[in-house]
Amino acid sequence: xxxxxxxxxxxxxxxxxxxxxxxxxxxxxxxxxxxxxxxxxxxxxxxxxxxxxxxxxxxxxxxxxxxxxxxxxxxxxxxxxxxxxxxxxxxxxxxxxxxxxxxxxxxxxxxxxxxxxxxxxxxxxxxxxxxxxxxxxxxxxxxxxxxxxxxxxxxxxxxxxxxxxxxxxxxxxxxxxxxxxxxxxxxxxxxxxxxxxxxxxxxxxxxxxxxxxxxxxxxxxxxxxxxxxxxxxxxxxxxxxxxxxxxxxxxxxxxxxxxxxxxxxxxxxxxxxxxxxxxxxxxxxxxxxxxxxxxxxxxxxxxxxxxxxxxxxxxxxxxxxxxxxxxxxxxxxxxxxxxxxxxxxxxxxxxxxxxxxxxxxxxxxxxxxxxxxxxxxxxxxxxxxxxxxxxxxxxxxxxxxxxxxxxxxxxxxxxxxxx
Length: 419
Hints:
Distance between the termini: 40 Å
Order of helices and strands: HHHHHHHHHHHEEEEEHEEEEH
């Protein structure tokens, strides 16, 4: 679904080239006035008929888009297909309408184009999902699949994104995280467009999930706050806490200084942050703590493990895993205990599609997200959404800078090498 910069450029050039060929062909046939009307009529039939044949062969709305995440271009094929008589609300072989395809790719100009041509903003796909649900869940895909047994949100802070030297193996490993970030960046303006156009926030899919449920499935995007108060959805139990007022979990709170945390937990020999400013610590209550002899902190009795993520020396993520015997084994009871003990307002919503294993749930607050599930033992994690976006944004800037430097170096070599 996501494409490299080279592929995106190639696709843009292909569309531009196709458009120039069509324009040139039209210009060549304009000279005889007596023939211009007939030629124009024939040309008007060519594209729609070709597009209709492609539709009959593939029946896939995505093939009539540019296929580029967040692109603002509208293809001639899309225009021609609609001109051929195929309605934008026609379902393709995947059960999607044209507006669903626009929501998948975060293409807001295509969405405006379709809405202006009568597309149903609350159209349903095969699973009963509306375009709004697709946008709130970061494209409608389970971008976090394959991260078991660890939490995908933990993976953001344990996998270093920025390294001095690029590595194809490392890039493959962190690709899902980068894909998620790209989907969220493209999905935010799409979500705003659909909300402003009157999309139904209270609608439910075939599984009984509304837009807020889909936002939870999308991860710590912050989209929930855009939904509350729209279309009659008040979410009375919403969490209006900020990162500064986030709950304290066994001495951990968002924004704590790295040195403060290190002294608090008797941590020595701190590692260095990577190029993006990220640093991760894993505290395991065994004989050693980060490889250094350390007394087990008494106030963490009942805790099996903790994972900490820092950005620019501030705590931006933490995950506390409890011993099985120290917490209720039933997850609904564990979540209720967390809500009461942490004074955490809000409703727990399913945050993963896993039937077995983690089965994580989350509560979205004003700037951070809390999640709970079961991995080795019951766990709770808290993540600063702004810090996460900053981290992934720096990674994107680093990769773009390297790409530009590589292109500049290749250009320099071409200038120096003159056969």
